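Final report, Chapter 2: Outcomes

The project's central promise was a pipeline that accepts a single protein chain and returns its three-dimensional structure in a standardized token representation, suitable for archiving and comparison. That pipeline is now operational. To close this chapter, we reproduce one record exactly as it appears in the project archive, with the input sequence first and the structure output second.
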Amino acid sequence: MSPLEIMLGIVFCSQTVVGIVGNSFLVFLFTFTFLTEHKLRPIDTILTQLAWANSMLLLIKGVPQTMAALGQKNFLDDVGCKINFYLYRVARALSLNMTCLLSGFQAITINPNTARWTRLKTRTPKYIVHCSVLCWVFHLIINITVLVRTKGTRISKNISNLLDYGYCYNLAVSTDKAALFAVVDSFPDAASVGFIIYASGYMMLFLKTHHKRVKHIHVSRLSPRVSPETRATQSILLLVNTFVCFFSLNSILVMYMQFKSPRPWLLHSSNFLAACFPIISPFVLISTDSQVLKYCYALWGTSQLLPFLASPVLSKEPSPS
């Protein structure tokens, strides 16, 4: 193996391990909080699914990339390539949709309590689960076309229109078909990203206006407190803006590779950018969302109490004579 292959293997492996650990911790944290009968926010349902989608994305893409970088070239057959591409597309689409739901829900939450918005606020949490299930079913069905279009193979290496992804081959389509697939595939993503940008702009404008309204109250205070709702909105804005940045850069590279035979460094760059948001997102939430921090403190407090609860001194059973 060359030094470049070793470096790529270390980078992809590090990305996969760090990202899966961070997202798995979030899923465990929300599950533990729910099972210990603590009240979760409606938005935590979306965050849990976002962490699940990010973990699935990192696992499906990161493990084969690491193996390919460390010398296991093109080890997937036709069926393996189809399943890998299919699950990756589903995970990527779900990550986008959960981020879209997250920004839309928070934009509704911070609206003033007028009669119209109050009715919408009370109804929205009831439909989060329904919208989430619809997203899962929709993408599991619509991405079946990937199984038809993907032609991964290990025996046709002499064909000129093969795209080598490192862990499997994929037959490149013609320019006309590539343009058609790019338009069809990118339209739902572009619509979702457009909605995310709109919702984020609205939240930023609302926070700016709200800050001006309450500025005279904070002037008389030495340490003004920010409301939990505002902190949650700022956290989600940071998360959403990070997503849009990495998603847009990766989408540009992916669309470019649909029309041009990609060089290895383009594929590596695209794979690296695709993994950046799933890695960063759990740590952004843990460090900026005050409610997630409270869940962490509750988990830490429970883990500290377990040895004492198990000790004979606090046990209700009489000690043996």
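Archive annotation: Residues 308-321 have pLDDT under 50 and may be disordered.
This record, like all others produced under the grant, will remain available to the consortium after the project formally closes.
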